[in-house]
């Protein structure tokens, strides 16, 4: 079976593109959903060096645009990237919570591998900051199992707190041990993110001004007051949580055989692993690992014919610090129960054999949920073609990267192996 390759990618700046009036509560949009979508799509086409006329399919991943911006029927908006050239091209919108655009990428790859499509544009997008915080919380909670979770006030910090508590209990770790692990993870995310000019928390952002690339400074933050690090959902604190961000990312795909001929910057999607678990946490077998995530890793690695020892860097879904631990262990970068200690011992930085989240991850780069999967793939692509945005691996020029994107609290797991074609 012929595989699919990425031949171009683009990532918008991530951030909160609104103006908020603290007195009236009014929120004014400064860069719209539509602006972001068009910027990403046009940027990816330009990066690939192809005309919009060559695109014969568009897939868009977006989590909850109807709740965030009152817009459904997202697929046809892809035509606005180049209306004259793209009119009548088939479009599809996918949803998989925070993995929405990885699902879009996979469906686009499957379409190419079916032989029906030759050039496909994939866009991931979310505009979250036009809602006040309670609205954002509700929109995201709709990706939980509503009858047992969202309807009873369970939020995503709360759902991942359950995973953290399950992990603590299974491994018999104290709160102090977990907080030290989390602080080192967050500090590494901030340190890497400061060097990413597209990150929500790039240089000049509050964590940079406060020196929070030092884990001890995170541990020393007060629990209350200005500049505090309060509990959001025990045992997760503010700096264990990813950002509410606006942004988009896009990729151009082609069959690998064609990609080799038309581009000197082709990166093959050599392995795709997707595995789903029960949506309700109560219905799963355990809450101390990503069981379906491990299955996704196995499937992706088997298809690509690699082991974790072959991987030069990884982008993992650190929506909360506990999930960086769980994804690191599911990949096999750490033994079970040991990832947090590996982070404490300063593994997985740029000087490691397999750096993790050189982009800054979701806690620093930002987490516009529908855009996250596409963004992770776009920045991994840039690493592999020698055009890194931000930090780079120090040991060697990377040839193989892995993306591990998670939707919901571990229900949708997408693992991609990306290989540079030379």
Q: How would you sum up this structure, described in words?
A:
The chain has 422 residues and is of the alpha+beta class. It has a domain of 142 residues: Thiolase/Chalcone synthase (Peroxisomal Thiolase, Chain A, domain 1). Helices cover 35% and strands 18% of the residues. The protein contains 15 helices and 13 strands. A nine-stranded mixed β-sheet has the order 5-4-6-9-1-10-13-12-11, with helices on both faces. A two-stranded antiparallel sheet has the order 2-3. A hairpin with a 4-residue loop joins strand 12 and strand 13. Helix 4 crosses helix 15. The longest helix has 19 residues. The chain starts with a strand and ends with a strand. 57% of the residues are buried.
Spell the H/E element sequence.
EEEHEHHEHEHHHHHEEEHEHEHHHHEE
Q: End-to-end span in angstroms?
A: 20 Å
Q: List low-confidence stretches.
A: none
Q: What's the architecture of one domain, going by CATH?
A: 3-Layer(aba) Sandwich
Please give the radius of gyration in angstroms: 20 Å
Range of helix content: 25-40%
Structural class: alpha+beta
Give the strand order of the largest sheet, numbering strands 1, 2, ... along the chain: 5-4-6-9-1-10-13-12-11
CATH superfamily of one domain: Thiolase/Chalcone synthase
Specify the CATH class of one domain.
Alpha Beta
Number of E-type strands: 13
Strand content: 15-25%
At the fold tier of CATH, the topology name of one domain is Peroxisomal Thiolase, Chain A, domain 1
How confident overall, as mean pLDDT? 97
The largest β sheet comes out as:
9 strands, mixed
Shape summary: globular
Number of helices: 15
């Amino acid at each position: 079976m012929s595989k699919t390759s990425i031949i171009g990618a683009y990532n918008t700046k991530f951030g909160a593109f609104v103006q908020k009036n603290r007195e009236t509560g009014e929120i004014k949009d400064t860069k719209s959903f539509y602006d972001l979508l068009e910027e990403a799509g046009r940027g990816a086409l330009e990066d690939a060096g192809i005309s919009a006329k060559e695109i014969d399919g568009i897939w868009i991943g977006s989590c909850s645009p109807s709740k965030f911006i009152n817009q459904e029927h997202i697929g046809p908006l892809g035509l606005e990237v180049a209306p004259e050239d793209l009119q009548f091209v088939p479009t599809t919108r996918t949803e998989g919570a925070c993995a929405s655009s990885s699902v879009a990428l996979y469906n686009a790859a499957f379409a190419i591998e079916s032989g029906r499509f030759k050039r496909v544009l994939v866009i991931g997008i979310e505009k979250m900051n036009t809602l006040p915080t309670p609205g954002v919380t509700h929109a995201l909670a709709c990706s939980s199992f509503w009858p047992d979770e969202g309807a009873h006030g369970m939020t995503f910090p709360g759902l991942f707190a359950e995973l953290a508590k399950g992990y603590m209990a299974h491994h018999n770790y104290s709160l102090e041990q977990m907080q030290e692990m989390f602080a080192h993870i967050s500090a590494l995310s901030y340190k890497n993110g400061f060097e990413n000019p597209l990150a929500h928390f790039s240089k000049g952002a509050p964590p940079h001004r406060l020196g929070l690339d030092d884990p001890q400074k995170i541990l020393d933050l007060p629990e209350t007051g200005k500049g505090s690090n309060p509990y959001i959902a025990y045992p997760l604190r503010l700096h264990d949580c990813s950002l509410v961000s606006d942004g988009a990312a896009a990729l151009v795909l082609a069959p690998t055989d064609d990609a080799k001929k038309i581009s000197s910057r082709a990166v093959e999607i050599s392995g795709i692993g997707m595995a789903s678990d029960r949506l309700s946490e109560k219905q799963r077998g355990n809450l101390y690992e990503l069981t379906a995530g491990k299955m996704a890793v196995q499937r992706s690695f088997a298809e690509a014919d690699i082991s974790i020892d072959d991987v030069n860097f990884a982008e993992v879904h650190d929506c909360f610090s506990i999930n960086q631990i769980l994804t690191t262990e599911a990949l096999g970068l750490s033994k079970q129960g040991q990832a947090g200690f590996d982070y404490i011992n300063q593994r997985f930085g740029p000087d490691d054999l397999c750096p993790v989240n050189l982009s800054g991850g979701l806690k620093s780069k930002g987490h516009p949920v529908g855009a996250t999967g596409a963004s992770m793939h776009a920045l991994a692509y840039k690493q592999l073609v020698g055009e890194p945005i931000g930090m780079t691996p120090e040991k060697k020029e990377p040839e193989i990267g892995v993306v591990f994107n998670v939707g919901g609290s571990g229900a949708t797991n997408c693992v991609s192996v990306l290989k540079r074609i030379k």
